[in-house]
Amino acid sequence: MTVFDKSLPVAIGCDHAGYEYKEAIKTYLESQGFTVKDFGTTTPNSVDYPDFAHPTASFVEEGKAAFGVLICGSANGVAITANKHQQVRAGLCWDNEVAKLVRRHNDANIICLPARFVALAYAIQMIETFYTTAFEGGRHGNRVNKIACS
């Protein structure tokens, strides 16, 4: 069961390293009853990850998405870019337990996946963990409230 609103789309974006994963993840999310707003890229040709991470993050930040998924080779570039947005908490996940913790403890609203370091099936498992895990609040809420700079 999802903890996110399925009436809103999932925002997704990637660079060339994440293109194949993005396409498969879109299919998976749609099979789970989500609609998907794809911010690209639309080919495996080399591109600059901020060109796709910023629009994806903006869509989440504006409250137009249930949550976001960003994919690049290491996931570092898209995570750094997305976290420039004040209302975004993008968590870089390489393990299922990390996917759970970024939701439980950090109230992450974007999951960032390293296509060059995790198998596609495991990336999909992490996404499922991400969207089915609730934020714990409490002491974690106090911490999350201290993240924004403004």
From TrEMBL:
InterPro entries: RpiB, RpiB_LacA_LacB, RpiB_LacA_LacB_sf. Keywords: Isomerase. One of its GO terms (molecular function) is ribose-5-phosphate isomerase activity. Its EC number is 5.3.1.6. Belongs to the LacAB/RpiB family. PANTHER family: DNA DAMAGE-REPAIR_TOLERATION PROTEIN DRT102, RIBOSE-5-PHOSPHATE ISOMERASE B. This is Ribose 5-phosphate isomerase B. It comes from Flavihumibacter fluminis. The lineage of its organism: Bacteria, Pseudomonadati, Bacteroidota, Chitinophagia, Chitinophagales.
